[in-house]
């Protein structure tokens, strides 16, 4: 019986954000625009940071990594959804589904850890300014980015190996616009307790722990800022942190709701809405959040665009 059931899971049907055909044109236009803005915005951030020697600092090094991860996270999910809408084909093969899930978790974990790393960088810069260059050495920066890349690879691979042992029989309709872990587990007709325990362990490690570290870092930062004697100094410090706090609220506000809230309070609609926030909206907004209030980055972007315009004329 099991071999027959296993072959029946050769593909899944992604039901998408809406099952009403009249919504598809609007969704296609909206997500195409969002994806183009995401790609252009994040690639501009990476190019601006890499081309300006003044931005070769730990803070911008982490920001360039975050922009790369955001670009990859959006590219893993949005283009497939756009193709499905355009071709009116909602199917995705089982291997492609697992591949998409692997990269979704890989880049999602990276996003979470990098946001926490950036909070630690701000903590050192504001609370220990005299020792900043010593603490945030090139070696530590390499470890803080290289470590998450390696660990994300192994965690995501474990998710896939655990998923590959499950049997899917009967309904293969996935009420989502990409292959996510939680909806897939609901479709399995075998015991998923091991998978669910691993999901909770990983969520604790890569969502709850970084979030607690961010809160601890910003608690110390707020105390340090309030001790600054000049109003101008306090304003500058708050301005430096506000953009990062906006990203923290956007990202963790949605991921905690999906992966750490009890299943009894989660619905397919809420999961899809949350997924749109952290796979499409947050990657699109991050370049604006980080560049609009950052004079150095705006200057680097201006110089980069002027150089490209001059070269083409």
From TrEMBL:
It comes from the Eukaryota. It is found in: Cell membrane. The keyword Membrane applies. Residues 41-290 form the G-protein coupled receptors family 1 profile domain. One of its GO terms (cellular component) is plasma membrane. One of its GO terms (molecular function) is G protein-coupled receptor activity. The chain crosses the membrane at residues 26-49, 102-120, 140-168, 197-216, 237-260, 275-292. Its main location: membrane. Keywords: Cell membrane, G-protein coupled receptor, Membrane, Olfaction, Receptor, Sensory transduction, Transducer, Transmembrane, Transmembrane helix. It is a multi-pass membrane protein. Pfam families: 7tm_4. InterPro entries: GPCR_Rhodpsn, GPCR_Rhodpsn_7TM, Olfact_rcpt. Belongs to the G-protein coupled receptor 1 family. PANTHER family: OLFACTORY RECEPTOR. This is Olfactory receptor.
